[in-house]
Amino acid sequence: MAIPFLFEAAKVPGLTPAERDQVLALVVHIGLGEDTTWRGYTSWSVVQDCAQAAEAVLPGLTAWALEGCREARTWTLALAAHHPTAWASLGVDSAQLMPNEAAAKTELVHHAVSGTLPSKRLVAEVLATEPELGEYYEEVISESPEYRHARMMVLELAVAGRL
Description:
Elements: H1 3-10, H2 17-30, H3 44-66, H4 70-82, H5 84-88, H6 103-114, H7 120-129, H8 131-139, H9 149-159
Helix pairs in contact: 1-2, 2-4, 3-4, 4-6, 4-9, 6-7, 6-9, 7-8
């Protein structure tokens, strides 16, 4: 499985923040589970194996994020949003990783990592403060099942470098 190797590669000294960000994005995208674009292109057992491998690096990624690595913080939250049960087992409050973020974004992330539905008011507030997310929300996220909205928004904020 590539995820543990990629995770270790992201920690290599000398990587630029952009390089580290790209490697961690790859780790998260490989391990998205049911939200992966691999679904339908590969066997479900492979998708599940990738998701489990990503869950396995979540504790180490979280510890790294808590040490202050910005890229680790971003991708920890994105991965946690797709694996809320694994996140809950760590006992970390997502707000610890977001001390300087707007309250609405922090609340949205909390819903995503806990697997709960945010209110429509909260979604509208985040979309108002993150206008570049609006078009993607309308075209893609709003068409998906409601239970996936918060985690998809968090992933898109991570991809856009806004988390």
